[in-house]
Amino acid sequence: MSQDNSQNFQRTSPARVGRMLAIMLGVCLIGGIIFFSMWDYWISEPPHVISVMAGDVDHSGPAEATGITITQNLSFLESADFRSLTFNALKDEPGVNPTIEMSVGDKIVFDVVNDGMSFHAFGVTKDTEGFAGIIPGSEIAAPTNPLKPGESGTSEFIAGEEGTYYYICTVPGHRDQGMVGEIVVSGSSGPAVAAAPTGVSHEFELDFIESADFRTLAFNALPGEEGNNPQIIVNSGDEVTITTNNAGMSFHAFGVVSNPDDFNSVIFDSAIAAATNPLKPGESGSTTFTAGAPGTYHYICTVPGHALQGMIGEFIVE
What we know:
The protein is mainly β.
């Protein structure tokens, strides 16, 4: 009796193969769309609030500012062949990439304009090469949303430690082509000294408000509206009373800070509530303190992330 040693092989049809390939192609296309739609996220740095909470080193914002402000005007320039990119003057010309000298605690205000034909962005870094490590608050525009020709912007930088910093164009490759200048920071000349009490009193009222989508937070009025984040100016030694009202739907707290990127740097005993025990919607609070050493400070919502969303204003002590 003979045995049948033949084997059965299962074969798929061309139609089934086509469907399988279509599914695989669809998965690849959807994955690619999701990846590139989030391109700005993949190339961005973590929010600064996360680094502060994690205890990362922050080279900006000393505990005590000197009250000295330096204004630096910078222009993005390009050579005719676009091979050389510089600030203020072309390569080998007087004034190219000026070196800035300052002391710990001094503040630089950068006024930057794009006088070139390409796109540019600005920032200060401690890194000796590359375009990463930009110190929060020093940015103007970004590589993903740069300044177009003719556009301008301003930013601030307060050095928290001695050393050499660099102002650069943060568009990849532009630093290597020459858009870089040095900021040399020497030891502090000493903090500004607070005046004796003057006997003058001021009262300010600030409301915490939010946009309908909760993406924009502000004091008193939303950006573009009259009264948004009003600037407060007092003299050293003046008595200041600030009352805050939570007119929003989220939780908020208040403080005058020496470093606007550090919600823990509250000064002058100016805190109202706290991130761990904030004002609930409808609640209010008040604080009275004496304005200390002259300088430019900021008042913020001290709940992590809220200053980054817009709850920040200048508090200037003269």
